[in-house]
Structures are given as C-alpha cells and as structure tokens.
Amino acid sequence: MSSIQATRMLTPGPTPIPDRVRLAMAAPLPHHRKDAFKQILAENQTMLKSLFCTESPVLPLACSGTGVMTAAAFNLFHPGEKVLVATAGHFGNRWVDIVTMRGLEPVVLRKNAGESFDPEEIRAMLDADASIRGVFMQISETSTGVLHPVREVAAITRERDVILVADGISAVSISPVLMDEWGIDCLITGSQKGLMLPPGLGFIALSPRAWQRVESVAPQCYYFDLRAERTSCEKNQTHYTSPISLLVGLHEALTMLLETGMDNIFKKQWALTQMARTGLAAMGMDLFVKEEGRYTWGLTSILMPENMPASPIVAKAYKECGVILTAGQGELKEKVIRLAHMGWVDWADLAAGLHALAWSLPEKPQGAYLEAALEAYHKALEA
Ligand SMILES: *Cc1c(COP(=O)(O)O)cnc(C)c1O
Question: How far is Cα 148 from Cα 330, in angstroms, rounded to an integer?
C-alpha cells in the first residue's frame, strides 16, 4: 500500500534494516559449502569476535533469540543441577521456563518489573548454597528497559565454580559488553535488535571454562549441539544448512558497524537514550526506569498515567504517523509504552517517534519537547 509517509519501526525487534544490508541479501546465493561462502564466514568470525570482545568462537545458529537461550541451557548444565535465575520481567521469566524444561533446578531471585538486581544479593545467595552451578540473567530486560549489573555479577561468578549465562539480545552492539574482560561465560544475542538484520539468527559464545563444561555434558538436543557447531565453525562452516542470506547480510552489517566504530555506535545509542528521556520528560510523561545507570541504551519505557491505557495510543501512532511503538508485555500490557531506538535508527527517526507519541496522546503536551530532546541529543554526543 502506498502512503504519504514512511513506516518507522521503533520497536525492540525487529528493527530497521539499512539498504546496504538489504541489497547484500538480495544478491544471488552463494552455495554454503563452497569457498566464496567460507571466506564470508571466516570474516564474519573475526568481526563477531571483536563485537563480543572475546577470543572465543562466536557461533551463529539459525534460530530466533529463544533458540540460543535454549542452546545455552541444554549444553552447559546436567539435568538436576541447581542454577540461580535472576528475573525482573518477561525475558527473565523465560529463563525460568527454559531451565525448568531442561530439568535444572532453578533458585529464582525475582524483582518487580522495572527494578534491577543488587549484585551483593546474588553473592549472598551463592555463598549460602555452594551447590549452585550457574547464574542466568539478562543484560538488558527488554520488557521493561532495565540494564542489569552483569559486569558486577561476573566479577562474583568468575571467582568461583559458577557459570554466568548472560542474555545480551538487547544489549550487544547497543551498549558496551566486554565478554572476556568482564568474565561472562556464555554470551548470547540475536540478529533483529542491535545488529540491523532481519530475525532468524542467534549467536552464542562460551568462555574456555564454559567449553570444558559443554564437553562434560552429553548432548541431549539434536539440533543445538554446540560441540558440533564449533567443529564446523573451525572449518568456516555451519553444521547444518546455513541461513545463507542472513549470514551474507551479517557480513555487511558487521562491516558497517566496525567501519563506524563501536565506540561511535555506543555513543549514538547513549545520545538517543538521553534524547528520548529528555523529550518524554519535557512532554510530561513518566519514565518507567528512573535510576541512573540502570536503563537500557536502546529502549525507553514510559509509565502511562492511570486511566490512560497504552494500546489506543500505540494504535493511533501507527495509523496516523506511521510509527510502530510497542505496548508492555504481560501485566504491563496497558501500563507501559516502549519507545525503542536500537540499531539502524537515528535522531530523526526518534524525533518522529516522539512526535507520533505526543500526537497520539488524548491531550497534546504543551512545551517545546522536541527542541529539548534534540538539545539533549547533541549535548550527549559532545560529552
Ligand atoms: C528479543 C529478546 C529475546 C527473544 O528473542 P526471540 O528472537 O523473540 O526469540 C530474548 N531476550 C531478550 C532480552 C530479548 O530482547
């Protein structure tokens, strides 16, 4: 359908795709067992390692993010083992479900939506029960826009025989995540958030001690066999038929990210976050995550006033402004609107998002919220 305006996806996945990546994926398919494709996978591997800040292989798997979460739970732990799952929202709860289905015994640390964890509480739980073998958490909880203190938790787990599994699906390539330096044992991400790709690829990297664990666990999941994937990866292959177009698109996306420089990407993500927060506050909206240092860099959640449900506003922003926002998940469905600004999104897209939101509110906000937002953007970039 033609329209007088662009459709803008300001959603926490999928996210917009640059023309360079779309065109790369439109080229004729190379065969996945031939040299030209092996060359692409070899270069992807080098670029993925610098994205993850790791020396370990970063295995691409043909699945959505939940697939790599599943692969982590099935490959790293024996059924019956105890693991701590730190959850403060929808995706944390998914860890609980996955580890339970794997037959692990979860000890659940639960916080309210919008809250984060105190690393000292995690330390105390690990001190109190020496049989806990792993910690599962999100780096960024996408249902609320909270950034969890993974670096601090890694400083605790790396000192003991406890494997830290970090879901970085809405963090990797959005805010700094230094896998080896921080001591994350298992880092995962997906293609459709910060990586400027369509959905359908997951990524998982393991520390040397996590690989030792994988070698001791009998494979129990035919498709997600990380040992087999690693062996193929060493030959610049994937174990099963490669998602060829996505891996070609990944090559272009990683080239773009590294050409720009990850420091510049993170700076942009930070500046967009400041722009969103300042603009929303100037609009008179309530930010769901208030604590400094604890909000995601790619997503800003708005707490809706009482008697102002989210979904009519989200619907109007799409219908009248072409901007796709997202309501909350689960119990937050009508209470929160999520304005995402991750991946191939710039200040002009976010300005459109702020306008679409303001336009769709029952009462138009007073005041120069766009000017305030843009000023905050430039100030954050210069800082
Ligand atoms: C999007 C997301 C997932 C789930 O990914 P799917 O691709 O929908 O399976 C898991 N965790 C986090 C933190 C996410 O943002």
Answer: 20
SS3 of 132-144: the string is: EEEEEEECEECCC
Question: Is there an atom of ligand 1 within 6 Å of 167 CB?
Answer: yes
Domains in the chain, number: 2
When computed from its CA atoms, the radius of gyration of the chain, rounded to whole angstroms, is: 21
What CATH number should be reported for the domain holding residue 203? 3.40.640.10
Could you tell me which residues are beta bridge partners of residue 165? 136, 186
155 & 61 share domain: yes
Contacts of 96 (CB under 8 A, 6+ apart): 85, 87, 106, 108
Same domain, 243 and 355: no
Take residue 208 and report the two structure tokens written for it. Answer: 């040397």
Phi and psi torsions of 164, nearest 5°: -95, 120
Probe target for ligand 1 pocket from 15, 66, 136, 165, with the most ligand atoms within 8 Å of CB = 66
pLDDT tens readout for residues 296-349: 999 999 999 999 999 999 999 999 999 999 999 988 999 999 999 999 999 999
Task: Encode pLDDT of 51-94 as tens digits.
Answer: 999 999 999 999 999 999 999 999 999 999 999 999 999 999 99
Sheet of strand 82-87, all strands in order from the earlier edge strand to the far edge: 58-62, 201-206, 186-190, 163-167, 132-138, 82-87, 105-110
pLDDT band at residue 1, thresholds of 50, 70 and 90?
low
**Helix, coil or strand: residue 50:** helix
Residue 80, CB-side half-sphere exposure with 13 Å CA sphere: 2
Q: Which domain holds residue 278?
A: 8-15+262-382
Which residue in this structure is represented by tokens 């020396």? Answer: 55
CA 66 / ligand 1 centre spacing (Å): 6
Q: How many CB atoms lie within 10 A of CB 28?
A: 4
Closest C-alpha to 168, from 68, 259, 249: 68
Residues 143, 48: Cα–Cα separation, whole Å: 26
Flag whether pLDDT at 288 surpasses 80. Answer: yes
What is the CA(366)–ligand 1 centre distance, in A? 36
Judging by DSSP bridges, how do beta strands 140-141 and 146-147 pair with one another? antiparallel
Helix (H) or strand (E) holding 382: helix 369-382
Assign residue 341 the CATH number of its domain: 3.90.1150.10
CB 101 within 8 Å of CB 159: no
